[in-house]
Amino acid sequence: MKEHVYDTTYLRTRDFEEGKVLFETWDPNAKYTWDAGIAIGKFFQELKAGRLIGTQCLNCQRIMVPPRMFCEHCFLPADAWVPVEDTGTVVTFSLCYVTWDMNRLEEPQIPAVVAIDGASPGMGILHLLGEVDPKAVTIGMSVKAVWKPAEERTGSITDIRYFKPLGGF
Amino acid sequence: MSRDRVAVVGAGMTKFVRRAQETGKELAWEAASKALESCEMTLDDIDAVIIGSAPEAFDGVHMKSEYLSDGCGGWGKPVIRGYVGGGTGVFSPIQGWYHIASGLFDTVLVICEEKMSSCQPHPQGAFLTIFDNFTERPLQPNLLWIFALEMNAYMTRYGLDKRDIATVSVKNKRNAADHPAALLGDANITVDDVLNSEVLAWPVQRLDVSPVTDGAVALVMCAEHVARRVTNKPVWVEGVGWNLDTAYWSSRDLSYPVYVEEAARMAYKMAGITEPRKQIHIAEPYDPFDYKELHHLEGLMLFDKGEAPRAAADGVTQRDGDLPVCPSGGLLGVGNPIAAAGMMKVAELFWQLRGEAGARQVPGTPKRGLAQAWGDLMQVGTVIILGA
Fold first, then answer.
1. Any idea what the Cα angle at residue B44 is, between residues B42 and B45, rounded to 5°?
2. Are B108 and B49 in contact (CB under 8 A)?
3. What is the rounded CA–CA span in Å between residue B152 and residue B254?
4. Nearest chain A alpha carbon to B217
5. Residue A8 in domain
6. How large is the C-alpha radius of gyration of chain B?
7. With an 8 Å Cβ cutoff, are A96 and B250 in contact?
8. What residue ranges define each of the domains in chain B, with the CATH number in brackets?
9. CA B345, CA B280: separation in Å to the nearest integer?
10. Which B residues in the span 327-386 are in contact with A, Cβ-Cβ below 8 Å?
11. How many beta-carbon contacts under 8 Å exist across A and B?
């Protein structure tokens, strides 16, 4: 099949540095303001108050976090608001040593999926872990939200700084 | 439902490179011209054109399929672009199939193109917008997170050994050493090389990951009455399937890709396959990361849950093994220009089933192969089954 492969021209970094090839650049200037919507709008209001909340589908009974105004399984309104805990269980985690653009981090970030207590089993959210030795993190570990002080909260997922091990280390 | 039988009759591709001098439009033309030439057809013989390519953000070009269309042979023809994330490379030939199976067209040119190198400083910048804009993006996530989270869930659920998983990367990079279009073929790479490579987001290390790549692949697909005229070796589309899971990915069981299973069930049913492990002779599952090949082999029901890593370490999936997997070299070896990478797998089945894969030819006379791709927010499975 070699004859069916086009011999594409391979560029090397020095081709740019030495001006052997020409190029054009562009910086997008696009800014967005997203309306938080019905379900996440209320979720954010509750975060600002230092609480987590979910919605329940009264058909399948699932308690969902983050909340949605419809159940994607039953495709019916999920408008019963249910307070949930700010504690949960680590479902999975990573120790990330690079930034998105591949720069090295000395101390790893610890992203994790945390299944929230009081929601249906396995109902997890993405967040970060903190106040923990990276080597000590395990799947199944119980964790609790560490909130920003009330005056610093803005109604954002970052009103929770991170989750830390319940009971501490 | 009666449908026209559909064949793949031609395939062509560009070399996969880290950075091509060619524009996306030029890459598309290169692949298209090679595919048409391979079956001695011209653009005049083509009724409709299908384009597969990643979102506009990658290229910074709006309405990208319209931009690419001239290089894809779309001038003055019915043209459509489909996009289902990384699943696109297998979804585009599925679109080719239903364009013809519906009876609407006799001949279709399918082109998947990706030029990832334009996006600076790293194409990950364009990927980050897949995270939920309210509940995830403010955490400043990194695309590697979701793979690392999934890999850890998979490894922990089944108590997997990272050494077994690393054999996938070794196999594919070695297989790719025999692929004339490959970016990262390496006949001498070892498991220790993979295990000693830089940790990016544990458990993901540098050599567990496929590279950023530019490239394009094209296929010519025909209705049976045309295929019989064009070639004495048509490769038939026997089954297609696709399935999408919820975007609330953090509430899913990440250790098993149920959406891949659903896509496979759809394709197996159409192909009349009841025992996939016996009836599929070559598999080209999507392998952007080494663990993904294994995860997908399980979702495709070619191995039991948690069993694929051991089988890989035992050599079952080698090119001369009982079930050759990614004889092309896959995304880990040939390269990962998103949409083009998936369709490279379909082209590989075409060459393998015609006995034209050269040094990569799997032994015996394989009669049926499966290609699968995966993408979006870890949620889409696309499957195609080809038969000689």
1. 75
2. yes
3. 9
4. A5
5. no
6. 19
7. no
8. 6-121+211-387 (3.40.47.10)
9. 15
10. 351, 356-358
11. 173
Task: Look up residue B290 and give its two tokens.
Answer: 């080494």
**Interface contact B30, partner A, CB < 8 A:** yes
The total number of structural domains that make up chain A: 1
Domain that holds residue A70: 36-165
Q: Is residue A20 situated within a structural domain?
A: no
Q: Does B233 touch chain A (CB under 8 A)?
A: no
Residue A59 lies in a domain: yes
What are the structure tokens assigned to B353, written together?
Answer: 């089933």
Q: How far apart are CA A21 and CA A15, in angstroms?
A: 6
What's the complex ipTM?
0.94
- Cα gap B153→A93, rounded to integer Å: 8
- Decide if pLDDT at A64 tops 70: yes
Q: What is the DSSP letter of A149?
A: P
The per-residue pLDDT for range B203-261, each reduced to its tens digit, is 999 999 999 999 999 999 999 999 999 999 999 999 999 999 999 999 999 999 999 99
Q: What is the dihedral of CA A151, A153, A159, A165, to 10 degrees?
A: 10
Residue A16 placed within a domain: no
The answer to whether A42 faces chain B, any CB pair under 8 Å, is no
Which B residues in the span 307-336 are in contact with A, Cβ-Cβ below 8 Å? none
pLDDT digits (tens, 9 = 90+) for B304-337: 999 999 999 999 999 999 999 999 999 999 999 9
The structure tokens 């899971």 sit at B245
Q: Name the helix (H) or strand (E) containing A113.
A: strand A111-116
**Chain A residues whose beta carbon lies within 8 Å of the beta carbon of residue B212:** none
Q: What part of B 180-199 touches A (C-beta under 8 Å)?
A: 180-181, 199
